[in-house]
Structure to design on (275 residues):
């Protein structure tokens, strides 16, 4: 038998989409007496979700046939990655409670969001997508507790800041993915349609789409118009939605991040979808 056949991911996944492999490691994280010294902002979401992958808080919820992962143990180390300000407003017990009903987490995507029009120094934002396995809260009035579990998908913004010689988490915001809206009701979850309808027809920023480039889940749409070149970056989520994360304009042969959308269309961009 191949090692691939016996990979745990075979049982943890509801689709063939690959999870992200963690290219980073940080052994000092597991020593409470060692100071954190993570000098790469992009490493933080990878390390954070690598720790949480086998964390579970399923007490009182359905799913599983015994112990799951490492239970609450990993939350202690993940909690260390937050800034002191966050920890002053959120105790470890409250943090663990936020994960009630979650038995497993997979990190599916990490994409940098360009900071535009902000004076905040040493802050980085990342678009993330995660897959979680959750259970159903047990009904105390019935003895029929089937071991049922569900897959759920969330995308959001993962914010880190540099403090005390290390990058730490200052905020994580999630939004659940909906698999029933776009197929029946909407055009504004398709990147090409968004560029055509919004940037070309309504805002008249571009005159035509030059090309579309696909890099795994990243969709880059290039447009030109009125003597200028533009690029619009979308992330294609598990449910197929294209979410706008960055807008660029070519200046002096460089792509410069910018904000183009007016108030009418702000809801299309991730940083406005998730405050």
């Amino acid at each position: 038998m191949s090692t691939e056949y016996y990979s745990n991911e075979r049982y943890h996944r509801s689709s063939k989409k690959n999870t992200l492999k963690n290219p980073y490691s940080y052994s000092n994280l597991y020593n409470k007496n060692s100071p954190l010294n993570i000098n790469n902002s992009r490493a933080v979401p990878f390390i954070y979700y690598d720790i949480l992958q086998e964390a579970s808080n399923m007490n009182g919820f359905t799913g599983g046939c015994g112990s799951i992962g490492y239970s609450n143990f990993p939350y202690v180390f993940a909690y260390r990655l937050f800034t002191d300000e966050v920890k002053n407003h959120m105790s470890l017990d409250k943090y663990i409670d936020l994960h009630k009903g979650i038995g497993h987490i997979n990190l599916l995507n990490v994409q940098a969001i360009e900071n535009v029009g902000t004076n905040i120094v040493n802050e980085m934002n990342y678009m993330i997508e995660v897959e979680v396995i959750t259970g159903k809260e047990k009904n105390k009035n019935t003895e029929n507790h089937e071991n049922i579990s569900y897959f759920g998908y969330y995308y959001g913004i993962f914010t880190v800041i540099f403090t005390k010689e290390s990058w730490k988490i200052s905020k994580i915001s999630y939004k659940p993915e909906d698999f029933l809206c776009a197929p029946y009701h909407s055009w504004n979850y398709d990147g090409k349609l968004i560029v055509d309808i919004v940037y070309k027809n309504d805002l008249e920023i571009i005159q035509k789409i030059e090309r579309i480039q696909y890099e795994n889940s990243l969709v880059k749409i290039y447009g030109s118009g009125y003597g200028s070149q533009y690029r619009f970056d979308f992330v294609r989520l598990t449910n197929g939605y294209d979410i706008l994360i960055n807008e660029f304009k070519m200046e002096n042969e460089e792509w410069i991040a910018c904000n183009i959308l007016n108030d009418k269309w702000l809801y299309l961009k991730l940083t406005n979808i998730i405050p």
Notes: The two ends are 48 Å apart (CA to CA). The mean pLDDT is 90.
